[in-house]
Amino acid sequence: MKSYRKELWFNTKTRRAFINITPQIEECVKESGIKEGILLCNAMHITSSVFINDDEPGLHNDFERFLEKLAPEKPYDQYDHNGFEDNADAHLKRTIMGREVVVAITDGKLDFGPWEQIFYGEFDGKRRKRVLVKIIGE
Ligand code: ZN
Fold first, then answer.
1. pLDDT tens digits for range 72-109
2. How much distance in Å is there from the Cα of 72 to the middle of ligand 1?
3. How many angstroms does the Cα of residue 92 sit away from the middle of ligand 1?
4. Which of 10, 39, 44, 95 sits most deeply, having the most CB atoms within 10 A of its CB?
5. How many angstroms is it from 95 CA to the middle of ligand 1?
6. pLDDT band at 114 (very low <50, low <70, confident <90, very high)
7. What is the chain's Cα-based Rg?
8. Residue-level pLDDT at 21
9. % of residues, the chain, pLDDT over 90
10. pTM here?
11. What is the per-residue pLDDT for 4?
């Protein structure tokens, strides 16, 4: 069995952002040489997410509004976690959007449904953060 590991780094200019990382993940699959297997991709930080959904800007605005309704960034003092930090909302948003995705690799490709794309969801950005890609298979 082959095994492949890579870290992808991000540093968003804004506090919150959604980045389509599918091209980078496809590059990892190619680099791994694995044709049949399983790919795991997870955020390595507790204030960012990796998730699968549609690459449609309207939907991304809807996610932003939905998450701000559930866990608004401000006022900062509404959260017990915010004392030395101001990122309680980012922890909560991350929990809703999820930590990781698992995708089947078939015939050397991500075995997606028709509109599936992989996103990095940043909720407390403006600093360097990592995503782990692990692929196992043959
Ligand atoms: Zn925190």
1. 999 999 999 999 999 999 999 999 999 999 999 999 99
2. 15
3. 10
4. 39
5. 12
6. very high
7. 16
8. 98
9. 100
10. 0.96
11. 98
Say how far apart CA 85 and CA 82 lie, in whole Å.
5
Q: Sign of torsion, CA 32 35 38 42?
A: positive
Residue 18 belongs to what domain range? Answer: 2-137
**Domains identified in the chain, total number:** 1
**How confident is the model at residue 133, as a pLDDT?**
99
**How many residues belong to the chain?**
138
Q: CA triplet 66, 69, 71: central angle to 5 degrees? A: 105
Tell how far the Cα of 58 is from the centroid of ligand 1, in angstroms.
29
Q: How far is the CA of 128 from the centre of ligand 1 (A)?
A: 15
CATH number where 128 lies? 2.60.120.460
Q: How far is ligand 1, taken at its centre, from the CA of residue 87, in Å?
A: 5
Contact predicate 20/112, CB 8 Å = no
